[in-house]
Known about the structure:
Blueprint: E1 4-7, E2 10-13, E3 18-24, E4 33-39, E5 46-51, E6 58-59, E7 68-73, E8 78-83, E9 92-99, E10 114-115, E11 119-124
Parallel strand pairs: 2-11
Antiparallel strand pairs: 1-3, 3-8, 4-5, 4-9, 5-6, 7-8, 9-10, 9-11
Amino acid sequence: QVQLKESGGGLVQAGGSLRLSCAASGRTFSRYFMGWFRRAPGKEREFVAAISGDGRSIYYPDSMKGRRTISRDNAKNTVYLKVNNLKPEDTAVYYCAAAPPLSSDYFAANKYEYWGQGTQVTVSS
């Protein structure tokens, strides 16, 4: 019932920034936790950020704090991920995902029911 499509990826020099967007279809967008994950070549999917349906609870792994900002605009059915001070190790396909309201395990990919196709972020040095 929820379709997601990421956009905003591209090739960026180290130290630059990007804002990724995820547009969602569906009429109950505000009910869903939204997450961002990434998968780098040869590595497992990694949790990047999550935000509650009302936008008031936000979660990042410690490694992302200070360089990532997740936000959402429920009126536009869109969630955003701002990535600052990009590093080559940020190169990955970035995915957004939607989950039913979560009280825990917001970092676990298997809790998210709907996934976009991903957008490639490549950071050059």
